[in-house]
Amino acid sequence: MQARGLLLLSLLALALIGLVVFLDRPVALADVAVTAGPSTLQPANPALRQLGAATSSFANTTPIAIPQAGAASPYPSTITVTGVSGVITRLVVKLFGVSHTYPRDIDIKLVAPDGRRILLMSDAGPAQGGTSVINATLTFDDAGAPLPCAANLGSGVYHPTNCEDNQGGDEFPPPAPSGVSGDSLGHFVGLNPNGVWSLFIQDDSSGDQGAVQSGWQLDLTVGCPPSVFRGEVQLQARTDYSGTQVGPGRLRPDGKFEFTSAPVTTGPDGKFDLTVNGPGAYIIGAVHSKYLPAHVAVNNPCGVVTLPTVRLLGGDTDGDGLIGIADLVRLGINYGTNPASDPLADIDGNGRVDIADLTMVGSNYGLSETPWSLSAQTEAGSESSHGQR
Fold first, then answer.
1. Domains (ranges, CATH) in the chain?
2. pLDDT of 261-288, one tens digit each?
3. Parallel, antiparallel, or unpaired for β 304-306 and 227-235?
4. What is the model's pTM?
């Protein structure tokens, strides 16, 4: 027992000598990540910096003539959307001045810049005994009611509707793409709206004609896509970075980080993709057993945000958020055991308690958190440094 006590005192002295040397020398780049002043991380894609929802309208007021049979003129009628940031969260389409002597003949297909396409309307109105539609404003919105398939058509807000009949097919002549890829305006949610939108109109049966006299309009509500934080968490003195939990959270009154929703867990390469609920201010934390946690505050993410690589500092064997005397004592008691008599003392996970573990505790002694900086990207194989004591 006396020999064991002498060994413990020797190890403590060694660790404290290492600590004095550590405090008396310039801080090396290999120790920790640099903590700079306040900074705001911008999304990786500048086109996604618009936060929240905003609605923009784009119109083509050129009249569209609908013949007695076949493709309208122009065919297609197009709207070019430019300068919109974000992705579609809601789409409304309006047709102005719609007139036709037999509206059941009208088929309308909307095609997005990426080729997604739906039928806005087909064969609406009564098959027999109906009246003409005259100068109607047709608003297509998923919140609307279906178009009337057996009643007269007039101005209103309608859900895209395909009323089946046997008086003409719904296939459009070229250059309209064949078929459809969806059946509602929600089919376009999540799409970058910029580009050429095409409205194909045809009369699918002979004998009647009409027009969309005042053209058409897109009302685009856009917002952020799902926000993703992407990055890498390394572990001091390890090459396998598995098992770090990364997620959004908050700081408790004592300044310690805690998760507020389920974190993701890193694999051997330490990389993570963390999806959050959209724009706002976040505190992202990284936590691993026997290592000091790290957190970083990020404002207003939108789209994919790449965080700087962080390397967690080892030595917090008791998980109290401070590398202190209790951790040194644990290392001293278990030093030299192989396999490790106490797994918590085996900080680097190599199965034994050795000088590498003791060195981590000594060099990180007094630290309470691993700093995580937004302002300086860490280079491969190097870190920057400043700790909290």
1. 2-46+226-363 (2.60.40.4130), 53-223 (2.60.120.260)
2. 999 999 999 999 999 877 788 999 999 9
3. parallel
4. 0.56
